Amino acid sequence: MQKVSDIIKQRVERIKLEKENQTTTLSFSSFPSFSDVDMAENKRKVEIKYFKRLSNLPKKINNCTFEKAIVKSDKEKKIKVMLEKYCKNFETALENGIGLYFYGVRGTGKTFYSLCVYNELCKNYRVYRTSLMNIYKRIKKTWKMQDQDEEDVLNDLLKADLIILDDLGKEYLSQEWGKEKLFDIFNMLYEKEKCLIISTTLDPEQMSEYLSINGSDDVLDRLKENCKGLAFNWESRRKEVKKEIFEEIFG
User: Fold this and answer.
1) Residues 55, 138: contact at Cβ < 8 Å?
2) Which among 1, 14, 122, 134 is placed 20 to 30 Å from 93, CA to CA?
3) What SUPFAM superfamilies does the record tag this protein with (predicted)?
4) Residue 33 DSSP label
5) CA-CA distance, 33 to 245, in Å (whole number)?
6) Strand 99-103 to strand 195-200: parallel, antiparallel, or no bridges (unpaired)?
């Protein structure tokens, strides 16, 4: 006959084994399956491609890389290094909604360097390059559509990891609609801590006037809070570039 002590020992071992099996089952169930991981990865790749199609990109976008930058001053070198660091540490910027604000006269490389950032980050992130005017046009276009509305346009801004607004300040903004819409958009991006890169020819004083709504500087203050200002304060080299192209064509 089996001893009582042996029976008790067997029961204890069985209970212990059942608990171990239960723990193992719970641990494995807490991890996503490979199919879930693959689906999430595929979804992200599709979204990255979507924003590439949605973005306003120049024909020579592939020429805009940090490696191809022709640096002609210490000031420009300093900005280039800062932009490379921004790309390298973009995860931290993404977590905190930190962006950049380029300002300077035309032809100093603001658009080129914003496209360098675009090319560097669009490989792994949802980067949306557009303009305020293009956003307004998309919104107005939805007024005549039944399958799309203004929320769809704004949701694209919210889904993007980084928004690049090119040449801000050249648009005419009516006080009644444009200014209010500008405040709504910037306020939404601020509250959602979205990363934003702005390039403009307006100096800080002109930008203050442009973004002022009913005498309030709320938009500008929020822009300064989340975006690091970079002054492209050297002479335009646009004529120089065109001169090289003319020489290449005509000799």
Assistant:
1) no
2) 134
3) P-loop containing nucleoside triphosphate hydrolases
4) P
5) 55
6) parallel
Nearest Cα residue to 132 out of 67, 85, 186: 186
CA proximity to 121, closest of 153, 67, 163, 80: 163
Q: Which two tokens stand for residue 211?
A: 């973004």
Separation between Cα atoms, residue 230 and residue 19, nearest integer Å: 60
Structure tokens belonging to residue 204: 């800080």
* 91: number of Cβ within 10 Å: 11
Contact 106, 237 (CB under 8 A): no
pTM of the model: 0.78
The number of beta carbons lying within 10 Å of the beta carbon of residue 81 is: 12
- Tell me the C-alpha to C-alpha distance, in Å, between residue 129 and each of 42, 52, 104, 208, 213: 22, 8, 19, 23, 25
Total H helices, total E strands in the chain: 11, 5
Spatial distance between the Cα atoms of 38 and 42, rounded to a whole number of angstroms: 6
- Adjacent-strand bridge partners of 66: none
Report the amino acid identity of residue 216: S
Model pLDDT for residues 159-209, shown as the tens digit of each residue: 999 999 998 887 766 655 677 788 888 889 989 999 999 999 988 788 888
